[in-house]
Amino acid sequence: xxxxxxxxxxxxxxxxxxxxxxxxxxxxxxxxxxxxxxxxxxxxxxxxxxxxxxxxxxxxxxxxxxxxxxxxxxxxxxxxxxxxxxxxxxxxxxxxxxxxxxxxxxxxxxxxxxxxxxxxxxxxxxxxxxxxxxxxxxxxxxxxxxxxxxxxxxxxxxxxxxxxxxxxxxxxxxxxxxxxxxxxxxxxxxxxxxxxxxxxxxxxxxxxxxxxxxxxxxxxxxxxxxxxxxxxxxxxxxxxxxxxxxxxxxxxxxxxxxxxxxxxxxxxxxxxxxxxxxxxxxxxxxxxxxxxxxxxxxxxxxxxxx
Length: 306
Fold this sequence. Notes:
The chain is of the alpha+beta class. The protein is built from eleven helices and 13 strands.
């Protein structure tokens, strides 16, 4: 269909539900702008359906595995369909927390001390964390999951061992990371421009899945983040650099902890949520970019060979 836009949503990851919220919000915005848009659930024979529809552009509203890890991007590249957000390499790097940390460290971006564990390798965790000079509390999480799924803060070795066993029932690689106390600061980047920074104050122990997506969690959003002008500009520059060194395109959101006057980069999300509680639309709105215009920009920014 000529000039058709397909919104890819749903998919196979544990973030399927959130992807539907993101995708439908984006589709509604584009329809308001006069575009012909079809929603397509990215599972089953969706590639065959994409080939049949021959869309001009795909708006990638997927979250998590297969949606933002380079998998669907490689399909769209092979079909030569223009798409939104980052390309194959940047997506796969950003989704792999350990690999992205290596890239960040190489480019002098401060990250928490961390340790990667693989399922088939027998290790003494206590010994490993001592070698790495890591102290409790520690964060344990899957190496390639989004939306804070499977993330646990462990206060001692008993909790760490318990969650380590739990995670390895589902995941092949997990990451143990030094817990950084302090303030939660997140920054939206729109191609080559850092839009702004927001501070989050969760009522829960940290900004987890419920804090992100449930009104009941009552997470406080402070926009703009109440930092000094120099520190505000610093965190914008750090997010812009993270976006660049990973090779990202379109929109990203980088998550930081601010502790003792230092910013620690936790991760860069290549396909941030576009729900009513999502941070990128909130940051954009503060700086005068309406939601519909933000989605329109994403479409105009679409390409292949990303």
